[in-house]
Amino acid sequence: MSDAVVLKAEARDRVGKGSSRAIRRQGKIPAVIYGDNKDPISIVLPTKEVTLMLHQGGFLTKLLDIEVDGKKHKVLPKDYQLDPVKDFMMHVDFLRISSKTIVTVNIPVHIEGEDDCPGLTAGGVLNIVRHEVEVNCPASSIPEFFTIDISKAVIGDTLNISDVVLPEGATPTITDRDFTIVTIQAPGGGAAEEETDAPEASEVPATAQSEEGGEA
Predict the structure, then answer these.
(1) Three-class SS of residue 79?
(2) In 3D, which of 172, 112, 178 has the Cα closest to residue 143?
């Protein structure tokens, strides 16, 4: 994982819905840092920088150093709220992490070897069953993505999680089966279906084990 991004924030003394609304009227974002058995810290974030990070993708797996009054707090975005109408950032929860913090995150899957794939060359269709894989891993070493190589796959092949090289410390949350990532289907063969309990990407935010938080 790349080095943590440094983000400067202001401490805030007042909390509550009224204070949060006032902060938003100023064009800023209220937020809270919590976890690691320390007191939560209510902060104010610059809207431009945070919105840019969100639009770059992978926000909930981005390790940050938030600087408040000259002190840096190493954190991971845990949750955020968007305005349902105007779609601007309303609040962010940050989990304070240490070298021992284990988090549950969704990691994107990148496909490589499409140009050399004999199954696709023969007219087969690439069916991506899982665009992301949920894993448990150290918060300090969250992978940016996983790679699965289909350069030798032929029509009818199925590539599973066992075909993905996982970094040290990362383990899939599904442990009872070798679940499917991609298949190479015959033309007109229809879409393959995976287990019915497979999570949708939008339904599984990054979370930390034994941690809870909410808006301050």
Answers:
(1) strand
(2) 172
Per residue of the chain (216 residues), give pLDDT as tens.
446 788 999 998 777 777 788 888 888 999 999 988 889 999 999 999 999 999 888 898 889 999 999 899 999 999 999 988 888 889 999 999 987 899 999 999 999 999 999 999 999 999 999 999 999 999 888 888 999 999 999 999 999 999 998 888 899 999 999 999 999 999 876 544 455 444 444 444 444 544 444 444
The terminus-to-terminus CA distance of the chain in angstroms comes to: 29
Burial 92-125 (b: 16+ CB within 10 A, else e): bbbbbbeeebebebbbbbebeeeeebebbeeebb
Tokens of 158: 């199925």
pTM: 0.70
